[in-house]
Amino acid sequence: MAERLNGHTLLVSLIATPIRHSLSPTMWNEAFAKKGMDYAYLAFEVGNEQLEDAVKGIRALDIQGSNVSMPNKQKIIPLLDELSPAAEMAGAVNTVVNQKGHLVGHVTDGTGCMRALREEGVEIKDRIVTLTGAGGAGTAIAIQAALDGAKEIRIFNIDDEHYETARENVRKINEKTNTLASVTPLTDQAAFKQSLAESSVYIDATSVGMKPLQDESLINDSDLIRPDLVIFDVVYSPAETKLLRFAREHGAKQAYNGLGMMLYQGAEAFRLITGEDMPIAHVKQALGLN
Ligand code: NAD
Question: Amino-acid biosynthesis as a keyword (predicted)?
Fold first, then answer.
């Protein structure tokens, strides 16, 4: 790394808090080194209070772009000059591209999920998708699935503060795309069962399956699993959630965790900011994920 850094080195940042645990600096710096790109990627502990100054810093220091994570994904929007259609609809930004001081916000979690599915041969276009979750991940996925031409997106969520977000996502999708979207309380298990029976793809975008909910799954009835139902869990730690284990044990042929989504959301941000493809195989190896 030290040999690469010089007076011309370009900077990409990550602004969030807490952020020291993030895999992104390793992903990006490994990718830069592998491709011989004169860039560096650094994480900065930035919360809402420092956000405005941090965004001024992106412009002042000509930082090429930035990843944005919690708690800044929504709060950064009024500080930017333009939003991609997906970021506009999702009301969240995880990537900022600095086009000569003109800052454009994008959200790549949804495209990351769609690409992870596509890499496994799963196309979302014209398909019925059942989706649990309407937080940051669920929102980005619902919006991108609609922008990618899903026939229907049936969202199920528990009765918490995210239910209202699910309603809002449904309203926007029905208004702005040709996809038919709906939201139903997850307590309506008959509707959930019926939706899964009619769907090609089930995406679990909730935090169920990850600590402290690692012993929980939203599917516990083997009748809901079919060999031709694609199951995608956004959680990637643990690599095999209770949902994925249960699905595989009961005959699911295509059950995936969120690792691909995590890698491809990074790859999409990398392409948007640098114009280059991220060397995915190398990054996976560097993260010890092979
Ligand atoms: P969030 O807090 O914004 O949303 C959480 C969602 O889970 C909400 O819809 C909430 O209603 C639902 N939920 C919480 N507890 C539940 C329960 N007991 N039963 C049913 N639903 C429940 O979180 P987020 O940022 O959307 O993240 C959700 C998960 O996705 C996390 O596990 C996160 O690690 C993962 N994630 C993965 C990637 C990736 O690249 N693979 C990207 C972002 C988030």
Answer: yes
For the chain, list the domains and their CATH numbers. 10-106+261-287 (3.40.50.10860), 110-256 (3.40.50.720)
**What confidence tier does 72 reach under pLDDT thresholds 50, 70, 90?**
very high
Give the mutation target among 207, 210, 283 for probing the ligand 1 site: most ligand atoms within 8 A of CB.
Answer: 207
Scan for tokens 């909910």, then name that residue.
213
Residues facing residue 106 across a β-bridge: 95
Which conformational region is residue 133 in: left (phi greater than 0), alpha (psi within -120 to 50 degrees), or beta? left
Q: How far apart are CA 240 and CA 220, in angstroms?
A: 15
Looking from the CA of residue 163, the nearest atom of ligand 1 is 11
Side-chain-side CA neighbours of 158 within 13 Å: the count stands at: 8
- The amino acid occupying position 79 is L
